[in-house]
Amino acid sequence: MTVNIIGAGLAGLSAALTLAKLNIACNLVSLQPSERAQSVLAAGGINGALDTMGENDTVREHISDTMRAGGYISDEGAVTDIAEHAPDIIRELAGLGVPFHSEGSRLILRNFGGQKKKRTAFAKSSTGRMIMTALIDEARKYEANGIIRRYAHHEFIKLIQKEAVCCGAWIRDTYAAGEQTPICLLGPVILAVGGMNGIFPEMTTGTTANSGDAVAAVFRQGVMLSNLEMIQYHPTTIAIAGKRCLISEAARGEGGRLYIRRNHEKWYFMEDRYPELGNLMPRDVVSKEMDFCLRNTECEPPVYLDMTGISKEIWKSRLSDLRDELIYYLSIDPAKSPIPVSPGIHYFMGGIDVDRSHATGMPGLFAAGECCSQYHGANRLGGNSLLGAIYGGKRAALSTAEYVSSGGAEEILYQHAYHEAQNSLKDMEHVSSGLAVSEKLKNKIRDILSGAMGIVRNEKSLEKALYELNELEGEDLTEREQNRVLLARAILLSAIHRRESRGAHFREDYPAQDPKYQGLVTALFDGKQIKVGLKQSTIGAEGHK
């Protein structure tokens, strides 16, 4: 039985390589080549308690930092899994040729936000690109013998279902001219389609090729989502054409300092308010503090990131690519002048709801990477995204392999699904028209959501946004546009349901954290309406100690 992996970024490649090493064939479907996946843009590094810096770092501390930053709503068992495997994953990547910064045989780790110990392995500020290059090269060995089969420039349409079981996926070739008959791929499915950047065009650091359409499509088909209200704003971004450009947290890890002018004098507000971690507080905290400063009538916008105190040696050996990027986009040398920065949407902690094994509630369907809700809770630590994608892809693949070896769905179910799929081809002939999303609608959804789902939220603006979305449903929308509106409604309903402030979700009308919301807000579409609930966290009150 062939496994179908949708997405060829870090999570998808990790899943494909894991299956290939088990001699299980897989189809690797992606809209863009792996070289252009979102994972390539990951800058700062990958976390693992290797303790090479003599600070007595431990896996337990990695778990504790991850849980604390995430507001204690993550599955602690899943967080334990990822932290325990992190050191071996980094060593394995180094063995594949990833050029992590080192001195002799010792990996050098840097500081990253929300962590007191140096725990982040890095390759200058291009860690994602270096890891992706190594995994792409490794995958080519298996592509050559056919065990990994690529479907480049193909996009996911929807799942093939039979008796509430995922039996495969419909995909189509986006390069083919004219209307093309969709392709039916039977077998278990692993979704590794990245975050929902396309819901917020021009506001995210990520590529809008990660449109959120695959998540929206499976949501309409009855797959549960969770944690949708938890959207991470990275504090240090700059506006460039069509998106936000990230200034990696590595800059603050190496000594960059945030300030704003208050009463005409520089105020290093993070160091003043949080003397222990200062500029390396978790991203949700830094972004909120920036927002509060900008609302302060004593302060003069913008906020600046001052990197002029970083030594020439650090710029040369660790941050040269970041310096080149800023000179290119802003014509400002960060080694000589502060950089004006503002928060931008960077990561979606929510997505497809999965268990510890990365299985969804639908048999035969698994998910990994940013498209699923796992590990990060209310706020993701920098350095945990690359780790989550690699380990998540591997874990999803192992779970899929177990599903296949145990028989998975009965063969007769696949046969019935195949015959029904063939019979429905006539209805799928003009599928392209249903996959269109107009720029006008994209921008409407963006504007509605951005007015309510910013760094600071309240009931009135959320309800107003929900009303405006409901008005869109009266328009003549394609199927994909309907899916986007449905997903946007689920995001708003999740934010309304969580009447507290926790991590990336700050409600000015409910500014305190409420223990009764210690868990993930879930959203399920039953074919008629979105049902929102709460899945309690597995960690008890002792986890807060």
Count every helix, treating DSSP H or I runs of 4 or more residues as helices. 17
Instruction: Give the strand line-up of the largest sheet.
Output: 15-14-19-18-16-17
Give the CA-CA distance, first to last residue.
47 Å
Topology-level CATH name of the domain at 233-344: Flavocytochrome C3, Chain A, domain 1
| Level-2 CATH architecture of the domain at 233-344 | Alpha-Beta Complex
SS elements, strand count: 26
CATH class wording of the domain at 233-344? Alpha Beta
Characterize the main sheet. 6 strands, antiparallel
CATH superfamily of the domain at 233-344: Succinate dehydrogenase/fumarate reductase flavoprotein, catalytic domain
Radius of gyration: 23 Å
Structural class: alpha+beta
| Unreliable sequence segments | 540-545
Query: Judging from the principal axes of the Cα atoms, what is the shape?
Result: globular
Instruction: Tell me the β content.
Output: 15-25%
**Range of helix content:** 25-40%
The average pLDDT value, as a whole number, equals 94
Describe this structure as you would to a colleague.
By secondary structure, this protein is an alpha+beta fold. Among the domains are: 233-344, Flavocytochrome C3, Chain A, domain 1 (Alpha-Beta Complex); 435-544, Methane Monooxygenase Hydroxylase, Chain G, domain 1. The chain has 17 helices and 26 strands. The strands form seven sheets. A six-stranded antiparallel β-sheet has the order 15-14-19-18-16-17. The chain has a five-stranded parallel β-sheet with strand order 8-2-1-12-21. It has a five-stranded mixed β-sheet with strand order 22-20-13-25-26. A hairpin with a 2-residue loop joins strand 16 (257-262) and strand 17. Helix 2 (59-69) packs across helix 3 and helix 15 (439-452) packs antiparallel against helix 16. The longest helix is centred in the C-terminal third of the chain and has 22 residues, at 384-405. The radius of gyration is 23 Å and the shape is globular. The termini are far apart. The model is unreliable at 540-545 (pLDDT under 50).
